[in-house]
Amino acid sequence: MHSGAGRCTTASCPRATPHDVEKTFNPSSVSVGGIATTTMTVTITNPNGVSVSGISFSDTYPAGLVPDQVGAYTCSAGSAVFSGTGWALNNVTLGAGASCSVPMLMHATIAGQIVNTTSQVTGTGVPPGGPASATLNAVVANTPTLSGWMLIAFATTIAALAAMRMRG
After folding, report:
1. Number of Cβ within a 10 Å radius of residue 121
2. Which of 60, 64, 68 is nearest to 23 (CA)?
3. What distance in Å separates the CA atoms of residue 47 and residue 17, rounded to the nearest whole number?
4. Beta bridge partners of 24
5. Taking all residues of the chain, what is their mean pLDDT, rounded to a whole number?
6. Measured distance CA(136)–CA(25) in Å, rounded
7. pLDDT at position 168, please?
8. What average pLDDT score do residues 75-100 get?
9. Is beta strand 126-129 parallel, antiparallel or unpaired with respect to 133-139?
């Protein structure tokens, strides 16, 4: 038996399926530093044949991952909170088979693999889904360096050129 709101109210209704949650970084490899060097996107999909409300989840940033700008998210949130340490959406409603996403421009402040994981996604009348994880590979930019001897040779050359210019 189904209620007028489109939700199952008895054991004879089809079993509700957890929400699908995906997280990606694009590009997945960046240099350390800079601003807005990657876009992290979290996408939630309602695989059920009915609308689900009360969808909530959060994402805490790990060390080395810094938000720069929240993109145009498509989740209709009852409340959305974004901070320098993470973000959360609460009371999202997704229609049957619908999905929504939250893109954020980010950058890395440390080198290495930075793993970012969401909380589980909960919703009214469905089992929890997720969490979702993605890995950002942050590398130190390959900049040329001069050895101590090269610096001495460079300084000596500049001094010699300056001395010749002053004589002439």
Report:
1. 25
2. 60
3. 7
4. 41
5. 86
6. 6
7. 67
8. 92
9. unpaired
**The whole model's pTM is what?**
0.75
Per DSSP, 154 falls in state H
What are residue 81's DSSP bridge partners? 88
Token representation of residue 147? 């050895």
Going from the C-alpha of 123 to that of each of 3, 14, 44, 50, 104, the distances in angstroms are 17, 16, 11, 12, 23
119, amino acid identity:
S
Say what the pLDDT of residue 2 is: 36
Q: What is the dihedral of CA 83, 85, 90, 95, to 10 degrees?
A: 90
- Compute the distance between CA of residue 160 and CA of residue 26 in angstroms, rounded to an integer: 50
Greater confidence (160 vs 138) lies with 138
Contact 123, 53 (CB under 8 A): yes
pLDDT digits (tens, 9 = 90+) for 45-85: 999 999 999 999 999 999 999 999 999 999 987 789 999 89
Per-residue burial over 76-89, b = 16 or more CB atoms within 10 Å of its CB, e = otherwise: ebeebebeeebbbb
Q: CB within 8 A of 80, min separation 6: which ones?
A: 73, 87, 88, 89, 90
74: its two tokens? 């498509």
Structural domains in the chain? Answer: 20-143 (2.60.40.1530)
